Amino acid sequence: MQRYFEEGHYAWRREGADSKRGERENNRYEKYEQAHHISRLSALMTVGMLAGCSSKTSSSSTSSADSILNNEETINLTVFSQLANWSGAQTGWGATLLKDKFNIELNIIPDTSGAYQTRMESGDLGDIVVWGNNGDQYQSAVSKDMLFDWDDEDLLSSYGTDIEKYFSDAVDANKKLNSDGKVYGIGNNVSNESGQHDLFIYDWGTRWDLYEQLGHPEVKNLDDLESVLKKMQALCPSGDDGKQTYAVSIWPDWDGNMVMYVKALASAYYGYDELGIGMYDSSNGDFYDCLSENGPYLKSLKFFNQLYRDGLLDPDSMTQTYDTMIAKVRSGDVLFSIFNYAGSTAYNTSAHISANKYMASLVPTDANVIVNGLSTAGGSRIWSIGSKTVYPEKAMQLINWLCTPEGAMTNWYGPKGLMWDYDDQGNTYFTDLGKKCIADSSTDLTGVEWTSPYTGKTYTLDGTFNDGSFQFNNTTWAQGAKNPDSNNECFASSTWASMKGDAKNDTEKDWRSYTNSDSSQDYLDSVNHTTIPAVNYAETTRDNELELKWQQVIKAIKQGSWNAIYAKDDASFASIVDSMRSECKGYGYDDCVTWCKSEAAAKYALQQK
Asked: Are the CB atoms for 204 and 268 separated by under 8 Å?
């Protein structure tokens, strides 16, 4: 890297200053100067000494890229992720692996309040940009030239060969998504086969050891579920830490257009997908706005209010973070969760399993669980590269690796060999350490030695497994997709032959007998469920006037919903909902609903194709 800059950089400064490449080379050298404290005078003297040798001043950007890709210098990449729950440097085993394999360090910037607008106004979104969806914010970034065209300078063909190998349909889908027909990224959850559905994340995880003690009472609907949860709380009034147990603990961090957990229950129970400020029925294209009388959102909202009034909802729900909530789940302070990751996955630690405690799926018989269909075109959470990056090759190198089976597996489960591997038949399995980490992401790795398969160097790790997990919080492959490196197994560990052994304890044995299933995915496949077809749909950009109304409306929806959850009685609940509806209508709610209905019709039309 040093030799490249000393010999060739100023040729770019003179001859290519007006080009994007020239500007990038200039910025690269400035970063190099800052890192190595090279004086401008010293650098100019070097160039002067070399000026008579044209062969040394005709270096191209390719030599710069090669130097960067050969890991001669540590490169710091900024990742602006709308999905991140972390702010700051990547840490733990993830930081060690990325430094060893790519000589990169990541700085994660989450999309906290105002972050998107601030970065757009600055003209620099970051080196890697991860989008929560492919809607108006992503499209605005495309239209304002804030994202790097992956075909520019042959970036994709030169440094994204695995993306082209596995995800060609996802590349084409992104081109079709963009009005200029260029490719600025790929979506998440890509499958190598069409017609599959992804893993169920709405698994209705319930403390089965308590349910078994109650004699398996019938749970037909939400009223039955509440009754059972009340009895469970009576059986288990405190968690491992001695604190009060609650049936449900929710959090506001991930609220979007509506209160996320309220919307999620509506999806998990009624089988409708979120769309704008309401729910979408993929079977016929119908749209239910969130404030419609007796609509799925308000019914779900009423359920949470009833839980609160019965002492079953964690009273900290409106103010706590996801991290605070998940710590309560791990401590046994929470008895039920719609989500697998916020329930059974977190609760079923080796300690709880040894104590014959277990959280397992219990779906009300009237429920219609939603699950996402998989597509070779991928989903809406886009991986992209910022147009102002100084290191597009390095950014593409990282994204490309994440699109390999090994990169995807590492993203989910940690380093190959240390946490997981393949047996002689190509079946996937966890190591003993991997089993501990997957069962409990807070497993401490301090002092664990990892020998890199990439450089052969040995490192001593620190922090917990969760600390080291890649904090950009997005996927490439879908977990329900088949892993090409394995013996036709899916990426999801719950589907591996090595994980389908005997029941872990007597409680799981009882659940298997009661449901006639040997895994939660098998059970959920057997109950009433709706697969949302995967289509290459993106929201239409709202004009400025509608967007202003939209932002006021969704703020009122979220605040009003939380207030309704904490209503003291039915009359208060109805009054709060009426006030919320009136406030939203004053902001232009009806115009927002009209837009949503148009979007629902467009999405349904795509499904018909």
From this structure: yes
Q: How many CB atoms lie within 10 A of CB 458?
A: 9
Query: Interior CA angle at 236 toward 235 and 242, to 5°?
Result: 150
Whether the model clears a pTM of 0.90, i.e. scores above it, the answer is: no
Per run of 10 residues, the mean pLDDT along the chain (length 609 residues) is 41 44 64 52 42 39 62 92 94 98 97 92 97 92 97 96 96 94 96 86 97 98 98 98 98 95 97 97 96 96 98 98 95 97 93 97 98 91 97 97 98 98 97 92 95 97 96 94 94 89 94 94 94 86 95 98 98 98 98 98 91
pLDDT at 514: 97
Q: Which two tokens stand for residue 593?
A: 């609903």
Query: What does the block give as tokens for 69?
Result: 């890709």
- The rounded distance, in Å, linking the Cα atoms of 207 and 77 is 42
Instruction: Give residue 74's pLDDT.
Output: 93
Give Cα 513 to chain centroid, integer Å: 34
Nearest to 297 by CA among 262, 268, 326: 262
CB atoms within 10 A of CB 49: 11
Which of 51-74 are b and which e, b meaning 16 or more Cβ less than 10 Å from the residue's Cβ?
Answer: eeeeebbebebeebbebbbebebe
Do 135 and 540 form a contact (C-beta atoms < 8 A)? no
Quote the tokens at residue 363: 């779906």
DSSP string, 291-342: TSTT-HHHHHHHHHHHHHHTT-B-TTTTT--HHHHHHHHHTT-B-EEEESTT
Residues 6+ apart with CB under 8 A from 132: 82, 83, 111, 256, 381
Best CA proximity match to 192, nearest among 216, 156, 168, 161:
168
Phi, psi dihedral angles at 573 (to 5 degrees):
-60, -50
